[in-house]
Amino acid sequence: MSNEVRLEVQDVSKTFGITKAVQHVSEKFYKGEIHALIGENGSGKSTLTNMLTGIYTKDSGKFILDGVEVNAKNQVDANNHGIAIIVQELGTLDGLTVADNIFLGHEDLFVKHGIKNTGAMNKKANELLKQYGFDRIKASDYVDDYNFEDRKLVEIVKSTYFKPKVLVVDETTTALSQEGREELYKVMNQVRDYGGTVIFISHDLPEVLEKSDRITILRDGVYIGCVKSSDVTENDLKRLMVGREVTGDYYRADYGEPVSKEVTLSVKNVTVPGKIEDVSFDLHKGEILGFGGLSESGMHEVGKAIFGASYDRTGTVTLADGTQINDIPTAIKHSIAYTSKDRDNESVVMNQSIGDNIVLPSLDDLGIGPLKIQSDKKLKAFAEKYAKELSVKMVDTNQFVSELSGGNKQKVVLARWVGKDSDIVVLDSPTRGIDIKVKQDIYQLMNQMRKNGKSIIMISEELMELIGMCDRIIIMKDGKISGELERRRDLSENDLIASMV
Amino acid sequence: MNNKAKTAELSKDEQLKKASTMAAVRAMLPIIGLVLIFIWFNFRTGGRMISNLSLALSSVYSLMIASTGVFFIMTMGGLDFSQGSILGIASIVICYVSQKAPIPVAIISGIAAGAAIGAINGFFYVNRKIKSFIVTICTMFLFRGIIKYLTSKAPVTGSASLSLFYDTVPIKLGCMLLVVAIGFFFFRFTKFGTYLKAIGAGEKAAKYAGIRTDRMKFLIYILSGAITGFAAFVSVLHTGSVTSSGGNQLETQILIALVLGGMPISGGAKVRFENIIVGSLLYTVLQSGLTMIGYTTQTMQLIEGVIFLAFVYIFADRQSLSVIK
Question: Which one of A24, A36, A248, B239 has the minimum C-beta count within 10 Å?
Fold first, then answer.
């Protein structure tokens, strides 16, 4: 890190109606530093960087880049000023090739006499992909052919190939597996090494501490302070973000508690073509069983297979009473719950009310008589009870789920299954993209459920939460089980990674 | 990008307010519209509409019955353009059977014929995963062809008892009320309605919440075909026979009626059962009013087209809310 200022944010504000999203924020970003920006959901991190990159317009204040004020009109304009962003959600466009996506808005580079030279563009894109070490991605392929992770890699190339002066990484890492993260870190370090500035937004505090040089904290749109990463601990950061001491346990505190021998669910020789191969394990009463691995290891499919949602599955999933689970309705009827990693598509019905989302699987239980006649009052009372129990932040249960933040959507899904009183709960990436306060709520809920004798399967890409929460962790690699670890105090991420790669 | 910037200028509160105003407009506009055009037509025709009410509403019975089935399909986010052909085929079956067997048998045959075509639609839509509007446009042409073939020499005439004994307002009204009442009960007070709305609002998530979405979709197409088969009975009472144009354009009439009634084209959580009733009445009043005033068919189509477009514009569900992070 040098002492030359790269970017100066001067008194920037932005309001959305009555919401003051960012209030008079000022900060200096130096050349050659990775500068983290942290804060809870809604603290204004993304709003600030979105103004810098031209996604939003600012109300007042200035962004001064290398001594010159910049007012980016849109992302392409920002790129021309040397500012790039990797966004949280999918930032590549369907129906275009990888090369098209990389050079989106900069096609002029390859246009001669009004004709685009696609061959030259693909060649250049392939060269870039090779430079980054992403050879397996081909420039001429449609980006649709690649999975979320690879598309993120394409986005990394897209936003950094022109050596930006400022690179914003907006909560990208939570969507990536360990492997993808490493690639991203590498690129971030490169930007720092050539004197660029990385603005790094992440909810993952250990990652923030490890990767960044300095950390700026925002709370409710207000600038709280800037600290050196080497001077603070995770707890300091939590306190700064929340504005008070984070009390109570974060993960589980107990160690060495024996797990019941009673098997509630037995998975035998389960294979899903192209996804998982010959997976067998038992789940015990009151146990939290973790599944870890790289994103493509097949661990996400394990959850689907248990819930009867996989296609062409072979092998058996059997409950303690001998019931075989082969489809979703049977699974739900026999007290299995599942929350998907793909929250918006597979967990919540987005364009429906919170109330309907909560009561959906319980309608049969709530109906009266052989026709299962539904009473509005009863449904509403049921939805309200569990929405309150999970403290969903909402206007009322008639509010649509699409209006909620990621953390609150997850709470709606959990409220649904707590309401259904499921005994076996399969949680796939339950805390993805969720801030600490809600994360803590979810961990405490899991702990409570465990104590009440529920069995939980937790599939996660965040190794720390697996280590913190699980009685046992099964590691997956290339669709097969590659290792199993028991809960113990000195378990480290490296123990897990050893079986993952 | 422009759009995004625009929505960003509105605060979440303002957006919520806007959305709830929109919901109120959605709910009230069709009813107000119905009352207003009813008054206006009576004024223009010197009260002839009220005095000839049963004539003015003669086509509402089969329309409202058939709309009930399509309402279920559209709630799930599907479409059905084969309704006119289903009505035509079912009418032919009813007429034919009524000549040889008692009327109840004829009714059941009509329902069965409708259900069979619905099953064909459902099979291609669900099992072969072809978009519903493509499947039903195909079956529309297919069965229209069969109708034309069967009626090429002469119209198929039903038993005389059909129009002699059964063509009364109480029977037709009774049939309509029966279907609407049963439909309303199941849609509003059992899980049936919630399930349909969930499928329309997010099929994948609905599946993960335990709804057998494929089975449901298939059965709804059969149900809708069966209901239209019953509508064919009511329609035959009025006409007595089926020509090659029997049931022609019913699908568009239903679509227009439902949209006029405030139904969002994409289905989902915002549909209301009232859409069927208000919509069918609105459409029928509009149609007979324009006829009574003396407009030609061409002018009527033009006016209807303009009104339809205006309603679609108002009710189209353009993701009115975007979430600000």
Answer: A248
Residue A102's contacts (CB-CB under 8 Å, 6 or more residues apart) are: A125, A128, A139, A154, A157, A158, A161
Neighbours of A275 (CB within 10 A): 21
Cα–Cα distance for residue pair B232/B247, rounded to 1 Å: 8
Distance, in Å, from the CA atom of A258 to the CA atom of A54, rounded to the nearest integer, reads 55
| Facing B198 at nearest CB: one of A338, A352, A404 | A352
Instruction: Give the integer Cα–Cα distance in Å for B284 and B290.
Output: 10
For residues A196 and A66, is the Cβ–Cβ distance under 8 A? Answer: no
CA B154, CA B152: separation in Å to the nearest integer?
6
For chains A and B, count residue pairs whose Cβ atoms are closer than 8 Å: 116
Quote the minimal CA–CA distance from B78 to chain A in Å: 16
Q: Do A17 and B191 touch (CB under 8 A)?
A: no
How far apart CA A256 and CA A249 sit, in angstroms, is 17
Asked if B8 lies within 8 A of A364 by C-beta distance, the reply is no
Pairing verdict, β A314-319 and A263-272:
antiparallel
* Whole-number percent of chain A with pLDDT over 70: 98
Number of neighbouring beta carbons within 10 Å of residue A288? 26
CA distance B39 to chain A (A): 36
Beta bridge partners of A455: A424
Q: What percent of chain B has pLDDT over 90?
A: 51
Beta bridge mates, A15 = A20
Q: How far is CA A297 from the centre of its chain?
A: 17
Distances from the Cα of B158 to the Cαs of B112, B149, B162, in angstroms?
Answer: 17, 17, 7
Decide if B191 touches A, using CB distance below 8 A. yes
- What is the arithmetic mean of pLDDT over A55-82? 90
Question: B201–A349: do the CB atoms touch at under 8 Å?
Answer: yes
Alpha helices in chain B (DSSP H): 2-9, 12-44, 48-51, 53-56, 60-75, 83-100, 103-122, 132-150, 160-161, 169-189, 191-201, 203-208, 213-239, 250-260, 274-293, 297-315
Q: What angle do CA A416, A418, A421 make, to 5 degrees?
A: 110
Strand partners, A339: A427
Min Cα–Cα distance to chain B from A62, Å: 19
Q: In chain B, whose CA is at the least distance from the CA of A401? A: B323
- Give the pairing of strands A33-38 and A214-219: parallel
Q: Which of A21, A309, A367 sits opposite B208 (nearest CB)?
A: A309
Tens digits of residue pLDDT in A254-311: 888 888 999 999 999 999 999 999 999 999 999 999 999 888 889 999 999 999 999 9
Contact indicator for A495, A292 with CB cutoff of 8 Å: no
In chain B, what is the greatest distance between 2 CA atoms, to the nearest angstrom?
70
d(CA B123, nearest CA chain A) in Å: 20
Task: Identify the H or E element spanning A388.
Answer: helix A376-389
Q: Which amino acid is at B96?
A: Y
For range B157-168, the mean pLDDT: 82
Measured CA to CA, the distance from residue A121 to residue A139 in angstroms comes to: 9
Phi, psi of A472 (to 5 degrees): -150, 140
Q: Which residues of A228-253 are buried (b: 16+ CB within 10 A; e: fewer)?
A: ebeebeeeebbebbbeeebeeebbbe
Provide, as residue numbers in chain A, all residues whose Cβ is less than 8 Å from the Cβ of B10. 16-17
Q: Taking a C-beta distance cutoff of 8 angstroms, is the pair B97, B106 a contact?
A: yes
